[in-house]
């Protein structure tokens, strides 16, 4: 009797379950299709364009292999772009990680006014890179700081007021590359383009609070008992930090490197507003170059090649991380 | 248990504590400095504006700069509002549905599918721009606000799906199982169990999408060629790139553009932060 009663319920439930599953898939289908077209389809399209010859606004439909890539990589301008991108990313990452970690540790040490400081450090994240760029552009406008008498503006003026006039520089107008060596048969000079430093400072201003927030979340996840046990064992605060806290923060550092790294490899807005790529092409990055040659010079195929290079660089960073993340999730 | 630390802390208060506060205040000054300049410059009258007196406080509160900046930005401001509201709402609905399915209705390959969707949030948009423009032209959406809404909704799918999926992972599956046994279907479970628990998730995603769409520049620049249709970031960049605009007007413009997202941050900072951390996957 009981058997007979439960039987239909089970089958009915199973069928119900199946239709629901079907509806579930139906519900995400529009998003899946949209992503398939707008992400993967368009990337494929760009990839194909990058392999063809374009004459003016028309594709000649002629496949020329990697010729467009060879052509962009042989230009001084694109080599300079890559150098700038690497310099920007390196300085930006190191500064954000160090400042973020420092501020997180300080905030976590039980200071008064923690929430105030936290809010101050993070608020730039709420702003557009364009807003940041407009403000910092004026802060780093050097003025006629070398004139007689000097007539500095922005940060230079501030430096002069506090008696540090010797630190005044041309900031975004400084066209030097340090050390600016020529090597490996490259057309661009290797080194740090000094005009990039102010751009890095503005970017760090915007993003280091975010790094701080990530580290702070990580620190809050470390139980007090571990630290307490180490203290009882006579470990110094520095030893605890080095041997216990820092290793436990490694996943946070990894996430931060991925997030900050993909932002800095694609940086565009901030540079457009702060320098527009000047002086020369000393602060121009691939994102800006792609925009210029595609939408200003109508060189679609070469623009597509630049875009694909950017995509490949970001993919090399992201895909291992996505796979790692997926595995972690399966394990837990 | 904390007796040890309580005893120790006051002893070490002096120099170490002082150093901590000095560093924190120095960094706070670094973060506030640009805002300070933004404020004092925006409120200066036109006669007062001089690059060599950049750091001097304004003698009074003048609103001319804002007036001039508003004249230029007004149009784009309403464009951005018309863009950000529908885009945010649609993003929330799509993200919530996707998150619900990918967290609670897993099927074969759903995790791989999720990773594939997620990849879309990291790509440099330069790699889709030309096909995007062509496609929008064909659809008759190029250069229009609805076109921009579509673009922001589509490229917002990865992050909104991610946030909702992680959020719904915290909803106990037993709750849904119980509902299923009672014969509640897909939409019933969503409507009566998942949705009522979703409010914080919606707030996080809405703030995230609002902020990032408001602040976005590249799509706005490429997709709207008509100056009458540009979003506010593009208009601000045009304003700052113009040789004829005084810099106090540029600063006032920057402040106006920053205001909506800043207000959201000030009042709903907690949720904003959650969105930020969700953006770093497992944070």
Structural overview:
- The complex is a heterodimer of chains A (332) and B (283).
- Chain A has 13 helices and 6 strands.
- Chain A is mainly alpha-helical.
- Chain A folds into 2 domains: 2-49; 67-331, Orthogonal Bundle (MetI-like fold).
- A two-stranded antiparallel sheet of chain A has the order 1-2. A two-stranded antiparallel ribbon of chain A has the order 3-4. In chain A, strands 5-6 form a two-stranded antiparallel ribbon.
- In chain A, a hairpin with a 6-residue loop joins strand 3 (143-144) and strand 4.
- The longest helix of chain A is centred in the first third of the chain and has 48 residues, at 2-49.
- Chain A starts with a helix and ends with a helix.
- Residues 1-11 of chain A have low confidence and may be disordered.
- Chain B is 74% helix and 0% strand.
- Chain B folds into 2 domains: 3-42; 66-278, MetI-like (MetI-like fold, Orthogonal Bundle), CATH 1.10.3720.10.
- Chain B has helices spanning 3-42, 64-104, 110-119, 129-139, 145-168, 173-181, 186-194, 199-215, 218-223, 232-241, 247-278.
- With 283 residues, chain B is mainly α.
- Chains A and B meet through helix 1, helix 3, helix 4, helix 5 and strand 4 of A and helix 1, helix 2, helix 3, helix 4 and helix 5 of B.
């Amino acid at each position: 009797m009981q058997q007979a009663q439960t039987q239909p319920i089970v089958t009915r439930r199973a069928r119900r379950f199946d239709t629901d599953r079907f509806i579930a898939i139906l519900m995400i289908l529009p998003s899946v299709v949209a992503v398939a077209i707008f992400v993967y389809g368009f990337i494929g399209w760009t990839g194909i364009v990058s392999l063809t010859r374009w004459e003016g606004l028309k594709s000649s439909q002629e496949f020329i292999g990697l010729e467009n890539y060879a052509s962009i990589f042989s230009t001084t301008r694109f080599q300079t772009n890559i150098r700038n991108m690497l310099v920007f990313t390196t300085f930006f990452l190191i500064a954000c990680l160090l400042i973020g970690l420092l501020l997180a540790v300080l905030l976590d040490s039980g200071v008064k006014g923690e929430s105030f400081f936290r809010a101050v450090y993070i608020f730039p994240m709420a702003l557009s890179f364009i807003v940041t760029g407009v403000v910092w552009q004026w802060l780093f406008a050097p003025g006629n700081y070398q004139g007689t008498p000097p007539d500095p503006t922005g940060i230079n003026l501030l430096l002069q007021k506090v008696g540090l006039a010797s630190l005044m520089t041309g900031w975004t107008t400084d066209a030097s590359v340090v050390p600016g060596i020529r090597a490996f048969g490259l057309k661009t000079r290797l080194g740090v383009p000094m005009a990039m430093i102010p751009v890095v400072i503005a970017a760090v201003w915007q993003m280091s609070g975010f790094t701080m927030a990530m580290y702070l979340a990580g620190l809050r996840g470390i139980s007090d008992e571990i630290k307490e046990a180490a203290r009882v064992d006579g470990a110094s605060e520095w030893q605890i930090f080095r041997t216990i806290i820092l290793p436990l923060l490694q996943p946070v550092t990894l996430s931060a490197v991925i997030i900050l790294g993909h932002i800095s490899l694609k940086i565009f807005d901030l540079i457009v507003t702060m320098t527009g790529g000047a002086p020369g092409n000393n602060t121009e990055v691939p994102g800006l170059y792609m925009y210029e040659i595609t939408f200003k010079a109508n060189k679609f195929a070469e623009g597509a090649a630049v875009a694909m290079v950017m995509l490949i660089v970001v993919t090399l960073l992201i895909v291992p991380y996505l796979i790692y993340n997926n595995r972690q999730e399966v394990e837990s | 248990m904390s007796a040890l630390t309580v005893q120790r802390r006051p002893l070490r208060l002096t120099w170490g504590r002082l150093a901590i506060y000095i560093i924190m205040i120095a960094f706070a000054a670094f973060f506030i400095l640009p805002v300070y300049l933004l404020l004092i410059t925006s409120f200066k009258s036109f006669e007062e504006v001089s690059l060599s007196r950049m750091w001097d406080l304004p003698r009074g509160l003048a609103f001319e700069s804002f007036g001039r900046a508003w004249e230029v930005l007004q149009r784009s401001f309403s464009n951005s509002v018309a863009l950000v509201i529908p885009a945010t709402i649609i993003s929330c609905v799509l993200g919530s549905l996707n998150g619900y399915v990918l967290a609670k209705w897993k099927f074969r390959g759903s995790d791989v599918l999720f990773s594939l969707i997620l990849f879309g949030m990291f790509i440099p948009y330069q790699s889709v721009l030309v096909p995007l423009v062509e496609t929008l032209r064909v659809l008759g959406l190029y250069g229009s606000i609805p076109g921009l809404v579509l673009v922001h909704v589509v490229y917002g799918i990865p992050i909104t799906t991610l946030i909702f999926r992680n959020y719904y992972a915290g909803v106990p599956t037993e709750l849904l199982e119980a509902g299923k046994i009672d014969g509640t279907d897909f939409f019933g479970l969503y409507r009566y169990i998942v949705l009522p628990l979703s409010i914080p998730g919606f707030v996080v995603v809405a703030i995230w999408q609002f902020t990032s769409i408001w602040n976005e520049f590249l799509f706005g620049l490429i997709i709207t060629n008509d100056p009458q249709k540009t979003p506010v970031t593009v208009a601000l960049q045009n304003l700052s790139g113009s040789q004829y605009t005084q810099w106090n007007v540029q600063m006032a413009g920057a402040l106006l553009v920053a205001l909506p997202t800043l207000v959201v941050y000030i009042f709903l900072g907690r949720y904003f932060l959650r969105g930020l951390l969700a953006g770093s996957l497992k944070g």
